[in-house]
Design goal:
By secondary structure, the protein is an all-alpha fold. The chain has a domain of 30 residues. 90% of the residues lie in helices and 0% in strands. Helix 1 runs antiparallel to helix 2.
Length: 63
């Protein structure tokens, strides 16, 4: 089970990074504030998911 979470860590971190870059690109080009807000919310949710996956990896690896 820990192996499954371990395999998900890079995907979770990559998802956060992609949304972060999209948000920065939108901000730099002066894009829609509504889109910026949505991307920020999505990034926060993805960060939560990534943290949970990382914590589960550590917790399951201990047992």
């Amino acid at each position: 089970m820990a192996g499954t979470f371990h395999a998900l860590v890079p995907f979770a971190v990559a998802a956060v990074a992609i949304v972060l870059v999209l948000g920065l690109a939108n901000m730099v080009r002066g894009g829609s504030p509504v889109l910026s807000q949505r991307l920020m919310r999505l990034r926060v949710i993805l960060q939560l998911v990534a943290i949970v996956i990382i914590l589960m990896t550590f917790l399951l690896a201990r047992h």
